[in-house]
Description:
The complex is a heterodimer.
Chain A: E1 28-30, E2 34-39, E3 42-47, E4 51-53, E5 56-59, E6 65-69, E7 72-79, H1 80-101, H2 107-120, E8 127-135, E9 139-145, E10 152-153, E11 156-159, H3 167-173, H4 180-197, E12 205-211, E13 214-220
Antiparallel strand pairs in A: 1-4, 1-7, 2-3, 2-11, 3-12, 4-5, 6-7, 7-8, 8-9, 9-10, 12-13
Helix pairs in contact in A: 1-2
Chain B: E1 6-11, E2 14-19, E3 23-25, E4 28-31, E5 37-41, E6 44-50, H1 52-73, H2 79-92, E7 99-107, E8 111-116, E9 123-125, E10 127-130, H3 138-144, H4 151-168, E11 176-182, E12 185-191
Antiparallel strand pairs in B: 1-2, 1-10, 2-11, 3-4, 5-6, 6-7, 7-8, 8-9, 11-12
Helix pairs in contact in B: 1-2
GO cellular component, one term (chain B): nucleus
Protein name (chain B): Proteasome subunit beta
Active site (chain B): 4
Amino acid sequence: MAAATATRFCQQLSSVSDMSPDWTTKEVSTGTTIMAVEYEGGVVIGADSRTTTGAYIANRVTDKLTPIHDRIFCCRSGSAADTQAIADIVTYQLGFHSIELDEAPLVQTAANLFKASCYRYREELMAGIIVAGWDKRRGGQVYTVPVGGMLVRQPVSVGGSGSTYIYGFMDSNYKPNMTKEQCLHLVSGALSLAMERDGSSGGVIRLAAISESGVERQVILGNQLPKWSTA
Amino acid sequence: KSITTIIAVEFNGGVVLGSDSRVSAGETVVNRVMNKLSLLHDKIYCALSGSAADAQTIAEMVNYQLDVHSIEIGEDPQVRSAATLVKNISYKYKEELSAHLIVAGWDRRGGGQVFVTLNGLLSRQPFAVGGSGSSYVYGFVDAEYQKGMSKEDCQQFVVNTISLAMSRDGSSGGVAYLVTIDEKGAEEKCILGNELPTFYDQ
Lengths: 231, 202
């Protein structure tokens, strides 16, 4: 408990004009929940599907899992425009690099490309990105590039506005060396919990499992979401 | 949001309350062993969060008002009465105060009950979490709470939740305090840092 800090705004009857709804003036944001988990032989990534402008849901079936290369994906959270632009740039850079190398690029390379853009333009951008994929050298890897442009590899990572609500669930349910099915179960469970509590996350759950053999994508619709016994 | 993690859970025959023990002023921890579970009456406790001064004052005022009330009616007060007294103060002074109290206890008429009084509302819930650390464990409590848990299960559930929140929230920490209230009375327990359950830590 802290000594009380009071920030008081003057009383207003309404903070935006009633004549135009707030979504005409608010930026498009993927207030979101995204998650990625490593397992033996690959990664499982997942995201919700809601894009908001203020209180209006601009897209309720967004695909926030964006392919960067054959076996490398990124999960986008933050400003929709910023993350799409960065992802397009990195896709180009990585494609070029892979032709020069004449082999599949490393996940670490993709992650560093994201980090380079996010750090250089950190004042202008609002982007939290999780890069995940499979490569021959290190197998399944998850790298997180949060707002600000840091880069760190983690076995499991969550991001977006809904992620705060599932830290406890993730800490208690993640164990090292899980199978692909266990990871899918963990990700879909965590995402549905976050979607339940976070107003900026919702819609359907999009999942993808990336391994040496390729990418398997899946959609879990609203009525098929895992249920929890809450009042 | 306020600094702390507090939780209260109902079980058949009573309630379990839990809290961390950190009090901070800015970045400094001014008290690392504060007991945030305050007595309102023999079998009614409240969990404090938010501004330390505001929360303690509300608890002391309600403690006094409940004492008077219980003498007037000649028996133990209801949990709902205690919660209503807290709610009245929270609502009347909602612009000046910045504290959230969760009221929980046992009475003869309703058994174990948990009431939430955030911002001056009054709502009975099977369990409630509060404080800044609570954001990190909403997912966990939604997933792990089952209706009809036993007393021991509830105690374990509360301890697990507090540990998880303490490991993620910079404003919660120290030791975990637990209070179990049932027909026979209230039992206080303190669980030290090294005895708390540990979870996967990257």
